[in-house]
Amino acid sequence: MPPAPRQERLIPFYVSPAAQGIFSIDESTISVGADGVVRYVLVVVAQGGARNVSYEGLRCDTRERRLYAFGRPDGSWSRARGNQG
Questions:
Q1: What pLDDT digit, counting tens, does each position of 1-48 carry?
Q2: pTM over 0.85
Q3: Separation between Cα atoms, residue 14 and residue 57, nearest integer Å
Q4: Which residues have a Cβ under 8 Å from the Cβ of 7 and sit 6 or more positions away?
Q5: Would you say 66 and 60 are in contact if contact means Cβ atoms under 8 Å apart?
Q6: 12, 7, 56: which is closest to 30 by C-alpha?
Q7: DSSP the chain
Q8: How far apart are CA 85 and CA 22, in angstroms?
Q9: Quick check: 56 and 62 in contact, CB under 8 A?
């Protein structure tokens, strides 16, 4: 698992006019694997202040998305269901 995201490494990005909150990716976690999967840590801060952190992967060729883990407030990770291996 990657290190917990840090505020100074977050790059905000636009999602859509309907999207609520602020979406950012931790630039230090962006990688492209030999398997063609782009992996990154996503941080979403809702309008009410709730913060959601996830470690995800995208395979652009097949339009697949995989969620590997959720970030905890203490900086540790909880593996997503179906990704216990």
A1: 999 999 999 999 999 999 989 999 999 999 999 999 999 999 999 989
A2: yes
A3: 18
A4: none
A5: no
A6: 56
A7: -PPPP-GGGEEEE---TT--SEEEEEGGG-EE-TTS-EEEEEEEE-TTS-EEEEEEEEETTTTEEEEEEEE-TTS-EEEPTT---
A8: 31
A9: no
Could you tell me how many residues make up the chain? Answer: 85
Residue for token digits 């970030």?
A: 71
Q: What residues are paired with 12 via a beta bridge?
A: 24
How large is the greatest C-alpha to C-alpha distance in the chain, in angstroms?
Answer: 39
The whole-angstrom separation of Cα 12 and Cα 21 is 11
